[in-house]
Amino acid sequence: MSLSVEVRNLKKKYGEYIALKPTSLEIKNGEFFTILGPSGSGKTTLLKLISGFEKPTNGSVFIGENEVTHAPPHKRGIGMLFQSYALFPHLTVFENIIFPLKMRKMPKDAATKKVDKVLELVQLSSFKNRYPHQLSGGQRQRVALARAVVFDPPVLLLDEPLGALDKQLRLQMQFEIKKLQDNLKITTISVTHDQEEALTMSSRICIINDGEIEQTGTPREIYEKPQNRFVADFIGETNLLTGEIIGWDEEIAIIKTKHGEIIRSLTFNKELKEITFAIRPELISIVSAVNQPENILKGTVRDIVYMGESSKCKIVTENGETMTIKLTPKEIPFVNEGQVLQIGWEVNEGTLLNK
Ligand code: ADP
Ligand code: MG
Predict the structure, then answer these.
(1) Please, what are the domains in the chain?
(2) Could you tell me where the DSSP H helices lie in 225-352?
(3) How far, CA to CA in Å, does 253 sit from each of 227, 245, 268, 278, 310?
(4) Of 157, 139, 136, whose CA–CA distance to 148 is shortest?
(5) How does the average pLDDT of the chain come out, rounded?
(6) Percent of the residues in the chain that have a pLDDT greater than 90, as a whole number
């Protein structure tokens, strides 16, 4: 029932403004695919082109084997959930959810059965006779979700549906959506600017910036092996050190940073010269008698921020390089503002990026 989605060289101009540069993507049947990017990067534009609410300037859209580039939205049969999910206020939960089945002229018995099944999936069976104004925000969202999937669409599109919810509810809804998606195995394309949501829910993520895809990969590939500075900076927190390679020790590049620190990084790309070295705060540890990593820098502790399960602080080296590190609960009591200490990481930790 669920189908793959493919876009080929898809491009969108609004007047002279290019909202989406030529983009090609293949989303496999049953995938949970997330489009992640800052506001205005073209995420909604890409979804609208897939759903048919906008026409592309160039390129084509396929759902399964069928080209749908010029088909109107209702012919594509896609399920959709947006931030403004407008339920019908004068219809009950049940009537709201059965609506798409009535439109499709499904016999009443079959439709009722189907609605009851979906109500169970989103755990709203006991609310079916309520009206939208008698529900909480999260419950309304679940009704909208049920309505979006009740007609077994081959594809589900989500455009920041959780954006308006508070954090607790958002986490709960993320869980509900993921459970429903696992259950129905429905191909899902989700748009968000929330990186944590993208990392936890998706089988694959594409990072979009300024109408252009910067990288597509699994959450781990995106987080651990960002391909460029934008992705490294956008996902998670990262220390970015610029510098140049001044020598090689087999596959290990010897780097002099802009501030004159010498660090070593494993890379198989011998073409690199001017580089940015990216390393996550959580990969940097405090050097001790029993922890002697290959890269060691000495610096002074600044700006400790306590965050409960961890702390963050800045280490400023004698040469003026500033690194953010994450302290584990066991390290927190031993690190104080103004203290001089050594931090370090192994040569295979962190990533070398081009420039
Ligand atoms: P996102 O969803 O990533 O925030 P959008 O796809 O909505 O971004 O918009 C991408 C860019 O295209 C933005 O600069 C936006 O202002 C512009 N844009 C979107 N829709 C229209 C439109 N109908 N007419 C003109 N410009 C538009
Ligand atoms: Mg948008």
Answers:
(1) 5-230 (3.40.50.300), 237-354 (2.40.50.100)
(2) 229-234
(3) 17, 6, 9, 14, 32
(4) 157
(5) 93
(6) 79
* Exposure on the CB side of residue 103, measured as CA atoms within 13 A: 12
CA atoms within 13 A on the CB side of 18: 11
User: What's the rounded Cα separation, in Å, for the pair 30 and 187?
Assistant: 4
Contact 257, 243 (CB under 8 A): yes
The verdict on the CB of residue 43 being under 6 Å from ligand 1 is: yes
pLDDT tens by residue, 86-131: 899 999 999 999 999 999 999 999 999 999 999 998 889 999 999 9
CB-side exposure of 325: number of CA atoms within 13 Å?
A: 29
- Least Cα distance to 344 among 272, 275, 290 occurs for 290
Q: How far is the CA of 19 from the centre of ligand 1 (A)?
A: 6
Query: Residue 46 CA: which ligand 1 atom is closest?
Result: 6
Give 79's contacts (C-beta < 8 A, 6+ positions apart): 148, 149, 151, 153, 155, 156, 157, 186
Q: Which atom of ligand 1 is nearest to the CA of 20?
A: 10
d(CA 332, CA 229): 30
**Whole-Å CA distances, 152 to 120, 127, 131:** 15, 22, 24
| Of the candidates 31, 36, 5, 4, the residue with the CA atom closest to the CA atom of residue 199 | 36
- Partnered with residue 6 across adjacent β-strands are 26, 62
Question: Which residue's CA is minimally distant from atom 23 of ligand 1?
Answer: 14
Q: What single letter denotes the amino acid at residue 257?
A: T
State whether the beta carbon of 41 lies less than 6 angstroms from ligand 1.
yes
